[in-house]
Design brief:
This protein has 252 residues and is of the alpha/beta class. The protein has a single domain (3-251), classed as P-loop containing nucleotide triphosphate hydrolases (Rossmann fold, 3-Layer(aba) Sandwich), CATH 3.40.50.300. It is built from ten helices and eight strands. An eight-stranded mixed β-sheet has the order 3-4-2-5-1-6-7-8, with helices on both faces. Helix 7 links the parallel strand 6 (143-149) and strand 7.
Length: 252
């Protein structure tokens, strides 16, 4: 049965989608069967793996709202072991249309249960907000991977996110746990080093040893619809995500 991991942060611009794309691709390069679910109406994860989001005939919206089986929506990427459940702006309507539906928080989990045995890892990229879509992602997941930018307010936002995870665990998904915290956008400055030290002091072994650098190539790759490994495999960002993939596998 595949591990379902929600990649989350209530703040935008912290490397969440970059991590969803590149960790998924790196695990696929390692021979793992990976499904990437885009739950963000912006659809950046979808376009970041080379899927034309404007041309989609069906998306995760149709599974959440119209109960279309996920298997009918899954798209193959250029990487043999990596598939994606795509999203586009249609997903904005799901927030409104699901409000009055009984069991609305469990829509994704119910769809996912039918195909999760086909994969080793399933990653869910949720919106950078505490929305019904984010709740669906957390309710469907076994664990949460938090991306945390190496900046001054990092720990303040982290405490809010940990509280959200606790609320979901207490009310909707008792099995939900924190699988790890990933430090992103690291620069060789005193501030970045201090943030890393503080986070490791607070969370200990929950913090991944791998730290993702601020890297121009990581920013460029999505505009070509490619994970960074297939844009420039030798760059620091690609090598960091390969190291993270190995660490994720080692943690089990």
């Amino acid at each position: 049965m595949g591990r379902v991991i929600s990649i989350a942060n209530q703040k935008g611009g912290v490397g969440k989608t970059t991590t969803a794309i590149n960790l998924s691709a790196s695990l696929a390069v390692e021979g793992k069967r990976v499904l990437l679910i885009d739950l963000d109406p912006q659809g950046n994860t979808t376009s970041g793996v080379g899927i034309e989001k404007q041309a989609l005939e069906s998306s995760v919206y149709h599974s959440l709202v119209d109960e279309v089986p996920l298997r009918q929506i899954v798209s193959q990427t250029e990487l043999a072991n990596l598939e994606v459940v795509p999203a586009n702006r249609d997903l904005v309507g799901a927030e409104i249309e699901l409000v009055d539906i009984t069991g609305r928080e469990f829509r994704l989990r119910n769809r996912l249960d039918t195909i999760r045995h086909e994969y080793d890892y399933i990653f869910i990229d949720s919106p950078p907000s505490l929305s019904l879509l984010t709740i669906n992602g957390l309710t469907a997941a076994d664990s949460v991977l938090i991306t945390l930018q190496c900046e001054y307010y990092a720990l303040e936002g982290l405490s809010e996110l940990l509280q959200t995870i606790k609320l979901v665990r207490d009310n909707l998904n008792q099995a939900l746990r924190l699988t790890g915290v990933l430090l992103t956008m690291h620069q060789h400055t005193r501030l970045s080093s201090q943030v890393i030290e503080d986070v490791r002091e607070h969370l200990g072994e929950k913090v991944y040893q791998t730290v993702i650098p601020r890297n121009v190539t990581l920013s460029e790759a999505p505009s070509y619809g490619k994970p960074v490994y297939f844009y420039d495999a030798k760059c620091a960002g690609a090598q960091a995500y390969l190291a993270l993939a190995k660490e994720v596998m080692a943690r089990g």
